[in-house]
Design goal:
The chain is of the alpha+beta class. It has a single domain, classed as 2-Layer Sandwich (Gyrase A, domain 2). The protein contains three helices and ten strands; from the N terminus they run E-E-E-E-E-H-E-E-H-E-E-E-H. It has helices spanning 58-68, 93-98, 145-155; strands spanning 12-15, 18-23, 27-33, 42-45, 48-53, 74-78, 83-89, 115-120, 123-131, 135-141. Strands 1-2-7-10-9-8 form a six-stranded antiparallel sheet. A four-stranded antiparallel sheet has the order 4-5-3-6, with helices on one face. The radius of gyration is 16 Å and the shape is globular.
Length: 158
C-alpha cells in the first residue's frame, strides 16, 4: 500500500510578520441537516456545515453526529481527503489574503469565528478567521493546493 502523503507534504514558510503552513489531515465532515450541530462547525449554507477536528477524529465526529441527529433528516459524510488546510498567522496574514480575495476581511466585517466561501487567487476556498492574532485557515481542494501554495508564497515575497 502506498504511503499516505498530504497535498503539500507538510509545507511551511516563515517571513517577517507571517507564518504559513499546511495543517495536514484535518478531519472534515460535511453535514447537511435541518438544524445546526452542537459544538463548533463552519456554517457553509442554510442547512450545511463543515465539522472539523484533529487528524484521526473522523470516526468520532461521525459517531457524535449520528447520535446528535438520530431521528432527524440529516446526512454526514467524511470529506477529509478532498481538501487540505493552509494556516496563515501573523501581522501580515490578512494583508496577504486581501491581495487575492474580494471579501472584506476587516475585523468589523469578518470577526474571529467567522467563515465564508470565497475566491482566493481564482481558487474556490473556505476562509475561517480563527482568532484576532490573526490566525486564518484556508480550506482548499487538494487538486488546487500546490497552485495556492505557490500564489501565497509569491504574495509573501518568497
Amino acid at each position: 500500500m502506498p504511503e499516505r502523503r498530504s497535498p503539500l507534504d507538510g509545507w511551511s514558510l516563515e517571513r517577517p510578520g507571517l507564518r504559513m503552513r499546511e495543517l495536514a489531515y484535518v478531519a472534515q465532515v460535511s453535514l447537511c441537516a435541518d438544524r445546526p450541530p452542537e459544538g463548533s462547525a463552519l456554517r457553509l449554507g442554510p442547512n450545511e456545515w463543515l465539522v472539523v477536528g484533529a487528524p484521526g477524529e473522523v470516526a468520532a465526529i461521525l459517531a457524535r453526529l449520528e447520535q446528535a441527529t438520530a431521528g432527524r433528516h440529516a446526512q454526514a459524510l467524511d470529506v477529509s481527503a478532498s481538501r487540505t488546510v493552509i494556516e496563515l498567522t501573523g501581522a501580515r496574514a490578512t494583508e496577504i489574503l486581501e491581495m487575492g480575495c474580494g471579501h472584506d476581511l476587516h475585523p468589523r466585517a469578518f470577526p474571529p469565528g467567522h467563515c465564508a466561501a470565497a475566491i482566493l487567487a481564482r481558487t474556490g476556498v473556505i476562509l475561517e478567521l480563527v482568532d484576532a492574532a490573526p490566525t486564518w485557515r484556508v480550506y482548499v481542494r487538494a487538486s488546487y493546493a500546490r497552485y495556492l501554495r505557490h500564489w501565497l508564497s509569491a504574495a509573501a515575497g518568497a
